[in-house]
Amino acid sequence: MDRRKLGEELLALLGDLVALPSTYPPGDTSRISAYCRDFLSALGYRVDLIARTKGTDNVVARLGSGTPSLVFNAHSDTVGVGERGWNTDPFKAVLKGGRVYGLGAANCKASMAVHLWLAREISRAGKPRGEVVFTFVGDEENLGPDGMAYLREQGTVKPTTLIVAAPTLNRLVLEERGVMWVRATTRGKAAHAGAPHTGDSAILRMHAVIAALQRGFVARRSKTGQQSTVSIGRIRGGENINVVPDLCTIEVDRRLLPDESFDAAFAEMKSLLAGAEVELLTGTPGFSAPESGAGVKAFSASIQALTGRPAERLNVVGASDGRYFAQDGIEILVTGPGDGADSHIPNEFVELDQLVDAALIHRGAIERLIF
Questions:
Q1: Residues 39-58: what's their mean pLDDT?
Q2: Engineered SS bond to 303: which of 3, 124, 311, 349, CB 3.0-4.6 Å?
Q3: Average of pLDDT values for 167-185?
Q4: CB burial class (10 A; 0-12, 13-18, 19+) of residue 303?
């Protein structure tokens, strides 16, 4: 395929998507979801708009039926423009020096453009083996329950292979660490600060709990270089300077290796936070895709064919919407154009050549998987 022509097609699609604001807050994806619905319906896909919360619309588009069920996922919401200085209109895709600038250009509207283009290519190729499903979801930037988590909860999609979009420089993410958020609370007795000995400081109690957590947590490392971590992200305590505090809370982020048991890790956290009340806020285990999986083999072969080099693997610090399917026994992989370091920043951009490569890689993988 002519790369120049393909670049023009992808740039036009990306331009349409960037021009449709879908920022969080407020996280309203209704306009961009309507665009995707109309685009995919015109190609012959069976399309549903699904929402638990008004304004957080999720697109599910199907072609074919049965197995394998190949599900593509990209989130349509973006971070806000904020107070950051932009050199271009953030809601206009601007090509300059081989880079396409615009809010969400890297995360994750470039991948949306690739998926829409791929959906068109598949519709032109004829009936696939099994079904192919494209999902464009909201509530990702909020780490909320109304996007891909909701589709999983409702059983709307049941993939055998799930391909999640993220800015990975077209490298393959085959495993992700699990995420666990917990809240720990210590309680004391309020008193006048002029006579602190008559009270019991919840903050001092929490100080001891934090010290024990730091002493007791032992980081583990996997063979692929992933590391388990613990981080205290928030602390609250006290009402006024002249009052001995009777309540203190911390919120802790724990990242799990893909082979760690979620329940065992939570039990460990409760032990490490002894002396505090411990509450699980949210979390999902990690996942790992085998090298022998159909999707991994197809994408690896397609990357090799395009670049002449073996597909690169990437370990990431964040977590994708693939985590909601971590316990389903399916193959999950993450890939897409753009660099994660270039997202959530002023003058966000994606390299047009990467966008073209991503489209060709995805098409090559599809040809190996369902045709």
A1: 98
A2: 311
A3: 97
A4: buried
Superfamily for the 3-176+287-370 domain: Zn peptidases (3.40.630.10)
Q: How far apart are the first and last CA of the chain?
A: 18
Say if residues 30 and 37 touch (Cβ distance below 8 Å). no
What is the CATH topology of the domain spanning 178-284? Alpha-Beta Plaits (3.30.70)
How would residue 343 be classed by pLDDT, with cut points 50, 70 and 90?
Answer: confident
Rg (CA), the chain: 23
Q: Rounded to the nearest 5 degrees, what angle is found at the Cα of 369, between the Cα atoms of 170 and 160? A: 90
Question: What is d(CA 22, CA 77) in angstroms, rounded to the nearest whole number?
Answer: 5
- E strands present in the chain: 23-24, 46-50, 58-64, 69-75, 78-79, 94-96, 99-101, 131-137, 161-165, 175-176, 178-187, 191-192, 229-237, 243-244, 247-256, 277-284, 287-288, 331-335, 349-351
pLDDT digits (tens, 9 = 90+) for 265-313: 999 999 999 999 999 999 999 999 999 999 999 999 999 999 999 999 9
Give the 3-state DSSP-derived string for 145-156, with helices as H, strands as E and coil as C.
CCCHHHHHHHCC
Contact (CB, 8 A) for 341 and 314 = no
Q: What is the DSSP letter of 268?
A: H
- DSSP per residue over 183-200, as a string? EEEEE-B-EETTSGGGSB
Instruction: Supply the DSSP string of 219-255, one letter for each residue.
Output: --B-TTS-B-EEEEEEEEE-S-TTEE-SEEEEEEEEE
CB neighbourhood size of 27 (10 A): 22
pLDDT at 101: 97
pLDDT in tens, 206-226: 999 999 999 999 999 999 999
